[in-house]
Design brief:
The chain is α+β, with helices and mostly antiparallel strands. It contains 13 helices and 20 strands. The chain has a seven-stranded mixed beta sheet with strand order 2-1-12-11-10-7-8, with no helix packed on it. Strands 4-3-5-6-9 form a five-stranded mixed beta sheet, with no helix packed on it.
């Protein structure tokens, strides 16, 4: 017995295509798998769904091969019988299998797919809400008109008809334009969040970009990275496409490429303004000398690959009024006026270490932190005071007081030292004349006897000894001569900051040893400028594109440099160091003579 399998398909134009094939076998399988006799590529059909086979009485028996049933003449069944003479229909997914007997005795199985539009004209559609609403096109036009009316016409009319109000940068005055918030492209940043209801604080003129003068009205303390002509000259040339875009933008009132809004974008959400990336700086500084031929700045583009050597500021001569920057490739010699060998104080087996072990305030060999203490902001170091950091070993005790305590010489001013030494010299004097005293003669028991009616020669001798080479003061200070030839000390000059154009946080490096960067343990003279060089920083800090590891820290320009602060990331606050007046040239020249003391 044979099965005639007829497949009916339709072209895109609606033309019917009929394909017939003969299967000389007694049973057929129907399913999604390709090996079935009737292949139905439908996800609603199982791999092997139905078996159709002839029974002995000429009937056809259909049974499900999987867990899903099939529809036989409109009823879901797992198996059923079909009489070919009367015909039947099996539904599997979107396919319909019509079964009927042919005149030659074969059984025809006609396969057709249900059209996608079938059932759309269901009678229940008349009860749906969509049947009484306008069409989608009409509703789209209505909504578009409503948006234009509320979000465009109302704000524009409100702006044109309102009474002009003075912009309020503080954000305390509510916005006077109705529905102007609908024009916002996003939330303001964290710093400008208070202006969310006062658009006119920044957008002073309608349909015009925010101007630099509006930004400066609030950020008046913001300094330029350099004078504007220098910035324009140092910036690289724009590409043709960028230049065209800027010409169009400037036609609508936007500031040029050096304006505030070219770098600072708003309405990007409640975020903080990120620092400029490495490319932002290297665009100008990579080949800066080719555009600014008179610049003293070296080219820089990447801290790990292309960065100039550090140039710290220091006092290059004794008593200089201002510090100078070190020249590239030179080894600075600092003329601070101090005599301080770091290696002696940091030698764990030296005399200073043994003395520190015996003192309760130390109890161990000296460390850098015993003398150098960070300021509260953790960015700089406090001034080293002799009374706090040095007097534990270098005592200035000069005698005992009447109450049983100790007196000591004052530190910081030679005049105070002279007064203290004169007070020490005014003690009981040797008797003048015979031992036997006459009546009313001043005796040693009288308080007036201690007065020195002549020139205090002994006080001058003591002061000269203290200020001369080998004296108590020259253990730390350089001796010199004043304008009138009297003994004096070279004033101490130390800069507030050594790296004046960058930012460095010592607190962030507290896990490191001081001597990892500063060679204080091997410095034998006070003229050594113990500022680390570029190579020591590159042990950990590489460029912004470096891969972060336990040791390597990717470092972009903004980690150490600020853009709007030409003098650096921070500035010292509070009183200035109390430097003494600069001595005359003859006094400074005396240091170079045979009696002078090398720094």
């Amino acid at each position: 017995m044979a099965f005639l399998i007829r497949t009916i398909d339709f072209t895109a134009a609606g033309r019917e295509i009929i394909r017939d094939r003969i299967a000389e076998q007694t049973s057929l399988t129907v399913g999604r798998a390709a090996e079935n006799d009737i292949h139905l590529p439908d996800l609603a059909v199982e791999q092997h769904h139905v078996r159709i086979e002839r029974a002995g009485d000429g009937m056809l028996h259909a049974s499900a091969l999987g867990t899903l049933g099939f529809a036989l003449d409109g009823r879901m069944v797992m198996q059923g019988t079909i009489d070919p003479r009367t015909g039947g229909e099996i539904a599997l997914g979107a396919a319909r299998l019509a079964i009927a007997a042919e005149a030659d005795g074969s059984i025809a199985i006609t396969i057709r797919q249900i059209a996608a539009e079938e059932g759309k004209t269901d009678a229940l559609r008349g009860f749906a809400l969509a049947s009484v609403l306008p069409s989608k096109r009409a509703m789209s036009w209505v909504l578009a008109g409503t948006i234009l009316l509320l979000l465009l016409m109302v704000p524009v009319a409100s702006h044109l008809l309102r009474t002009p109000t003075k912009p309020d940068p503080t954000g305390k005055t509510p916005g006077a334009v109705l529905l102007d918030s609908a024009w916002s492209s996003g939330e303001l940043s964290v710093k400008h969040h208070s202006l969310k209801d006062n658009c006119e604080s920044c957008h002073v003129a309608a349909f015009k970009s925010v101007q630099d003068e509006t930004c400066i009205s609030c950020h008046e303390d913001t300094g330029n990275h350099a004078p504007m002509p220098r910035l324009a000259g140092g910036a690289p040339a724009l590409s043709p496409g960028d230049a065209l875009q800027w010409r169009i933008a400037e036609g609508f009132g936007k500031e040029g490429p050096l304006g505030c809004v070219s770098c600072h974008s708003e309405h990007e959400g409640p975020v903080r303004q990120p620092a400029g990336g490495e490319a932002f700086c290297s665009d100008c500084h990579d080949k800066l000398d080719t555009r600014l031929t008179d610049t003293s700045l070296a080219n820089a583009h990447d801290f790990g690959k292309g960065h100039p050597q550090f140039r710290p500021v220091y006092f290059a001569s004794f008593g200089a009024a201002k510090p100078v920057r070190a020249k590239p490739g030179t080894k600075p010699v600092e003329r601070s006026g101090l005599v301080f060998p770091h290696d002696v104080h940091m030698d764990a087996r030296g005399g200073a270490a043994r003395m520190a072990l015996s003192l309760r305030q130390y109890g161990k060999p000296l460390e850098c932190g015993d003398c150098h203490a960070l300021t509260p902001d953790k960015l700089a170091f406090k001034e080293v005071k002799m009374e706090e950091s040095c007097e534990g070993c270098h005592s200035l005790v000069s005698g005992r007081t009447a109450g049983g305590g100790f007196s000591k010489l004052r530190h910081g001013d030679v005049k105070d030292l002279a007064e203290d030494l004169a007070r020490i010299s005014s003690g009981p004097r040797r008797r003048v004349g015979p031992v036997r005293q006459r009546p009313v003669q001043i005796g040693s028991a009288s308080p007036a006897y201690a007065a020195d009616f002549g020139r205090p020669v002994r006080a001058y001798i003591g002061l000269s000894n203290a200020l001369s080479v080998g004296g108590v003061c020259t253990e730390c200070h350089l001796p010199t001569r004043g304008p009138t030839g009297q003994a004096d000390l070279m004033p101490v000059n130390l800069p507030d900051r050594f790296l004046s154009s960058g930012y460095f946080n010592h607190e962030a490096h507290k896990k490191e040893e001081c001597t990892d960067c500063h060679a204080a343990d091997t410095s034998k003279v006070a003229s050594d400028l113990l500022i680390p060089d570029l190579k020591s920083c590159r042990d950990c800090h590489l460029g912004a594109t470096a891969v972060k590891t336990k040791k390597v820290v990717p470092s972009d320009c903004a980690m150490c440099h600020a853009y709007h602060l030409p003098a650096g990331q921070w500035a010292t606050k509070g009183p200035k160091p109390h430097y003494r007046p600069v001595p005359d040239k003859a006094a400074i020249a005396s240091l170079a003579g045979p009696a002078g003391l090398k720094p």
